[in-house]
Amino acid sequence: MKESRRSDENFDIEIKNVVYKVQTGDKQAYAYIIQMFQRRIVVYCYYLLKSQEEAEDAAQDIFIKGLEHIHRYAHTASLSAWLYKIAHNHCVDLIKKRNKNHQSLVEYKENREQEQDHGYTEIIHDLLEHLNVEERQILLLRSLEEYSYDEIAAIMDLKPTTVRKKYERLRKKLIKPMNKGGEVYEQPFRIGG
């Protein structure tokens, strides 16, 4: 446990040093930030946008915005939380644009059915299919990224108590189909508090 805490502290120090380099003009150092967070940001975007291509494009846009606004990063939250905040806002904007363009639900589902998801990924998709965007974000940030309610609240511009209540309702909502689902849902997927 102590060694893990030390490695987390070392990682935080390393990230702070890289951010400082980028903020003082070394734009090449930003490649390290992309390398460290790209996969997680793409996965987060994928579960919100439900398209691998859109998720990859969104991640590129998010990292560009991050670089453009790195001077605003003030170390009050982790760099990871700051990037997720940018990702949250960007994905919400994309979803609003998509809805504004009247992409029909049928067309969206047809595209989704063409994807070839198997095993664990398919189970997660089944669970997430019945959630709205906000619920998916809370679930992903809490269960997969293991953010605190305070961090999620900061990312989503909500109060921590609101996030906690929404997460508890979400857990209850997910536990019902999991209990009914039989073998399909017996794969481990942490939805605990």
Automatic annotation (TrEMBL):
Pfam families given in the database record: Sigma70_r2, Sigma70_r4_2
Gene Ontology BP annotations: DNA-templated transcription initiation
Single Gene Ontology MF annotation: sigma factor activity
Organism expressing this protein natively: Paenibacillus antarcticus
Cross-referenced InterPro entries: RNA_pol_sigma-70-like, RNA_pol_sigma-70_dom, RNA_pol_sigma70_r2, RNA_pol_sigma70_r4_t2, RNA_pol_sigma_r2, RNA_pol_sigma_r3/r4-like, WH-like_DNA-bd_sf
Keyword flag Transcription: yes
Top-level taxon: Bacteria
Record protein name field: RNA polymerase subunit sigma
